[in-house]
Design goal:
Blueprint lengths: L1 E5 L20 E5 L7 H8 L4 E4 L8 H4 L7 E4 L9 H6 L3 E4 L5 H18 L1 H9 L15 E5 L3 H12 L3 E5 L5 H7 L2 E2 L2 H7 L2 E4 L13 H6 L5 E4 L8 H10 L3 E4 L19 E3 L8 H19 L6 E3 L9
Parallel strand pairs: 1-2, 1-3, 3-4, 4-5, 6-7, 6-9, 7-8, 9-10, 10-11, 11-12
Antiparallel strand pairs: 5-13
Family: Belongs to the D-isomer specific 2-hydroxyacid dehydrogenase family.
GO molecular function, one term: oxidoreductase activity, acting on the CH-OH group of donors, NAD or NADP as acceptor
InterPro entries: D-2-hydroxyacid_DH (IPR050857), D-isomer_2_OHA_DH_cat_dom (IPR006139), D-isomer_DH_CS (IPR029753), D-isomer_DH_NAD-bd (IPR006140), NAD(P)-bd_dom_sf (IPR036291)
Length: 326
C-alpha cells in the first residue's frame, strides 16, 4: 500500500479538486487540515508515509526531519519555487522532489496587495465589523488618487502593480538592488534610490524574493524614513521586514501596515501583531485561489502517477538514476 499525505489542506478542498482515486486501490490518501507545527509532531505523524504533498512552503522539510521519515520516497510541492526543502538530504535519502504548475500569483498576489491597500485606505475591515455589531461609521478615509506608490521590487509581480496604480491616478516610484532605469521606464515607473522611496511613498509595497541580500530590507531605519501614516504592504515574505521594528512603529502609530505574510506561519496565537493597531492582517492568501488550487492538485496527482511509472515529471531533485527535470 502506497501511503500519501496531503499536508496543510486548510480549506478541506484537496480531495475534491483532483481525481485521487485514479491513483489506484493500492494507494491510501490522508489529508491534514492543520499545520504540523513542530518537527517532533511532523516526524510522528508522517513517518508512515511514502509520499508527501506539500502546499507551497507551509511545511518545511529540513534535513533533521527528512532523516526521520524512513519510508519517504516522493515529495510533490505546489508551485515552481521552493526554499524550505533540504534537496541535498532528500536526494541522499533516495527521495525525488517534484513541483507543479507555478500558480496564478502573477495576478492573484498583486490583486491581494491592492485589497490590503484599499482596506487600509478606507478602514473596510473595521467598518464592516462595526456595522455587523450594530454600529455605524467612525473612521475617516483617504483617497489614493494623487498619492505615490513605492514598489520595492519590480519583477513580474511588482510590475503588475503599476497599471493598477495608474488607474487610481497614482505616481509610481521603484527601487531594488538590481533595478535599472530602463526596466523601471518599461514598466511605467520612475527609479529612485532606497532612501528616496521610503521618504516619498504614501504606500510602500514589497515584491522581492526572500534571500540573504533581501532579508530585513525594511529595517527600523527604513520605517523611520516613512511619512507619518504611510502604508507598508507585504504580500511577499515576512522576513523582508524587521518584525520587531514594525510592531514598535505600529504601536506608536507611525505607520499602518497591510500584511499577508509573517516570519512564522501560521502566525502564533499570542503574536503581538495580532494585537497591533493600524493593521489589516490576512493569513497568507496571496496565491490562494480556486484556479491555482485546482491546477496544483491536478498536477500533484499527475506527478505521483508519473513517478510510479518511472518517468517523474517536473523534477526539482532526484536520485541520479531518475534523470533531469522534464
Amino acid at each position: 500500500m502506497l501511503r500519501i499525505a496531503i499536508l496543510d489542506d486548510y480549506q478541506n478542498v484537496a480531495l475534491s479538486l483532483a481525481d485521487w482515486g485514479s491513483l489506484g486501490d493500492d494507494c491510501e490518501v490522508v489529508r491534514f487540515d492543520e499545520n504540523l507545527s513542530t518537527e517532533d509532531q511532523a516526524a510522528e505523524q508522517l513517518e508512515g508515509f511514502d509520499v508527501l504533498c506539500l502546499m507551497r512552503e507551509r511545511m518545511p522539510l529540513p534535513a533533521s526531519l527528512i532523516v526521520r521519515l524512513p519510508r519517504l520516497k516522493l515529495v510533490v510541492v505546489t508551485g515552481a519555487r521552493v526554499r524550505t526543502i533540504d534537496m541535498e538530504t532528500a536526494v541522499a535519502q533516495g527521495i525525488t522532489v517534484c513541483h507543479t504548475f507555478a500558480g496564478q500569483s502573477a495576478h492573484a498576489t498583486p490583486e491581494m496587495a491592492w485589497g490590503l491597500i484599499l482596506s487600509l485606505a478606507r478602514s473596510i475591515p473595521a467598518e464592516d465589523a462595526r456595522v455587523r455589531q450594530g454600529g455605524w461609521q467612525q473612521t475617516v478615509g483617504t483617497i489614493l488618487g494623487g498619492k505615490t506608490l513605492g514598489l520595492v521590487g519590480l519583477g513580474k509581480l511588482g510590475a503588475r502593480m503599476v497599471p493598477i496604480a495608474k488607474a487610481f491616478d497614482m505616481d509610481v516610484i521603484a527601487w531594488s538592488q538590481n533595478l535599472t532605469k530602463e526596466r523601471a521606464s518599461e514598466c511605467g515607473a520612475r527609479m529612485v534610490d532606497k532612501e528616496t522611496l521610503f521618504r516619498e511613498a504614501d504606500v510602500v509595497s514589497l515584491h522581492l524574493i526572500l534571500g540573504d541580500r533581501s532579508r530585513n530590507t525594511v529595517s527600523a531605519t527604513e520605517i523611520a524614513l516613512m511619512k507619518p501614516g504611510a502604508f507598508l504592504i507585504n504580500t511577499a515574505r515576512g522576513p523582508l521586514v524587521d518584525e520587531h521594528a514594525l510592531v514598535a512603529a505600529l504601536e506608536l502609530g507611525q505607520i499602518k501596515a497591510g500584511l499577508d505574510v509573517y516570519d512564522e506561519e501560521p502566525l502564533p496565537k499570542d503574536h503581538p501583531l495580532r494585537r497591533s493597531p493600524n493593521t489589516v492582517l490576512t493569513p497568507h492568501l496571496g496565491y490562494v485561489t480556486e484556479g491555482a488550487y485546482a491546477a496544483f492538485y491536478r498536477d500533484t496527482v499527475e506527478n505521483i502517477k508519473a513517478w510510479r511509472a518511472g518517468t517523474p515529471l517536473r523534477v526539482l531533485a532526484a536520485p541520479s538514476a531518475e534523470g533531469n527535470s522534464q
